[in-house]
Amino acid sequence: MNYECPIEVMNVFDNEGYTFDTYTINILFENGDSYVVASSSNPTHPQGVWSIKENEYIVAEDLTKEDAHIGKEIDWDELPNEVKKTVLSYFDDFTF
Predict the structure, then answer these.
(1) Long-range pairs for 76-83 at CB < 8 Å and ≥24 separation?
(2) Is residue 48 assigned to a domain?
């Protein structure tokens, strides 16, 4: 199945397993609402990780060495399908 990247997804980070919530996804809606999603590779698994912070936003250019746990910026297409599917289904009631 194809999980196209919504325009609301500003950027995606991968810390390559440095923490259990290896993926960080920045979401910004047209109305100004912003979210940072932290996810493991299989967030719906009983041992998976899925966490959301509202009114947060990570600016890639502002990251410092202290933010190494965020990881490197990657493309949406590099996310595991389970993460994409979970992001899309969770925010379905918003704009996607």
Answers:
(1) 76/5, 76/9, 76/12, 77/5, 78/12, 78/14, 79/12, 79/23, 79/25, 80/23, 80/41, 80/42, 81/1, 81/3, 82/41, 82/42, 82/43, 82/44, 83/23, 83/25, 83/39, 83/41, 83/42, 83/43
(2) yes
Domain span at residue 40 reads 9-62+70-90
Q: What integer best gives the mean pLDDT of the chain?
A: 89
Tell me, yes or no, whether 55 lies in a domain. yes
Q: Rounded to two decimals, what is the model's pTM?
A: 0.87
Instruction: Report how many domains make up the chain.
Output: 1
